[in-house]
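Supplementary Note 3. Input sequence used for the single-chain structure prediction.
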Amino acid sequence: MAIPKQERQDIRLLKRKHARWEKRQITVEGEKAILELLKSTWITERIYFTAGRMLSEQLRQSLSPTTTLVEVSAKDMELMTSLKTSPGLLALATMPDKAGRAEHSGGVWLYLDRMNDPGNVGTLVRVADWFGMAGVVMSSDSADPFGPKAVQSAMGSAFHTPIRIQNFKDLPSRWTTRVVGLDAGGQNLFELPTSEAPTLLVVGSESHGVSEDICSACHVMASIPGAGRAESLNASVAGAIAAASLVQQGVPMGQGG
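The predicted structure, written as discrete structure tokens, is reproduced below.
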């Protein structure tokens, strides 16, 4: 049940962004997220599980022949986990070559501008997946979409949704045909004509909103009208409402047609 100290340390290092990208490896925890991982093109190298934990038949049937099952002690799992409470199931996965480098395709892409909260990043990746958006682009100073908290919040969507990490100013023109930013002072999102639907929908940082340089490049700034007393919406909630509005208007989103 004991695993080599170096192996355990290598897993722990993946909590750090530079180590994940240098090794192009991540950890995924919990059965639901791991099942989604196993359905994807990502390579699942090993799955660690605590002694006495029963592995579901669904998980066993989803395993690749190249995936190794490793039983570990509760103490080792506690040292390897990135969560406050370990679910007792942790996978080590290798990023495919295109992770973070998605190519352009038609539809609506979500752009995350300086989004620091990995929970919001992961939730918005899941939102894009749910609504069949073409994918997610994010600035290099946003939280890592393949970090533990973001992966947990995305609930497996990070393995199926095209993701590109690139600053707005460096995006080729095909990505910015029509850019719509979300801002409390913008036009009513629900009243925008379909002809003004975005190819790139920008959600700004939790604290500062859409940055000035992106605001100036937006064709439209749109707002989500409210009737209550809340000062603002959570970034991931705002992104979800905007995506739902576009679907309701019949805008072609990308993956969903």
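The CA atoms of residues 128 and 135 lie 6 Å apart. The mean pLDDT is 93.
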